[in-house]
């Protein structure tokens, strides 16, 4: 079962893909969808750390999707949001850190 975190992340990515050249305020997206803005902001920060979106502060600021990720697949999002643990080839469970792209045992 997919978590709300994935649902909100997918919704955010899809919204950013609608206007790829514009910076969009996460609070407005949260308000439109009746979800907690602080939680959506946290998800946006995770996506930013992973390099999928970028941000700008100030008037006209917000988040926008990076051009390289306009064709991101749902399976990539599922892996990002739902699969923090993987099994390595020798059978040990490892945690994949998407931010610095290293496996930790």
TrEMBL record:
InterPro entries: Tscrpt_reg_Rrf2, WH-like_DNA-bd_sf, WH_DNA-bd_sf. Gene3D superfamilies: Winged helix-like DNA-binding domain superfamily/Winged helix DNA-binding domain. GO terms for molecular function: DNA binding; DNA-binding transcription factor activity. GO terms for cellular component: cytosol. Keywords: DNA-binding. PROSITE patterns: HTH_RRF2_2. This is Rrf2 family transcriptional regulator.
């Amino acid at each position: 079962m997919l978590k709300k975190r994935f649902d909100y992340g997918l919704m955010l990515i899809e919204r950013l893909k609608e206007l790829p050249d514009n910076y969009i305020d996460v609070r407005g997206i949260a308000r439109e969808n009746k979800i907690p803005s602080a939680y959506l902001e946290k998800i946006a920060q995770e996506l930013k750390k992973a390099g999928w979106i970028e941000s700008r502060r100030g008037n006209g600021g917000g988040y926008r999707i990076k051009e390289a990720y306009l064709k991101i697949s749902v399976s990539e999002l599922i892996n990002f949001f739902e699969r923090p643990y993987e099994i390595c080839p020798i059978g040990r469970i490892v945690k994949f850190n998407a931010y610095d792209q290293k496996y930790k045992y």
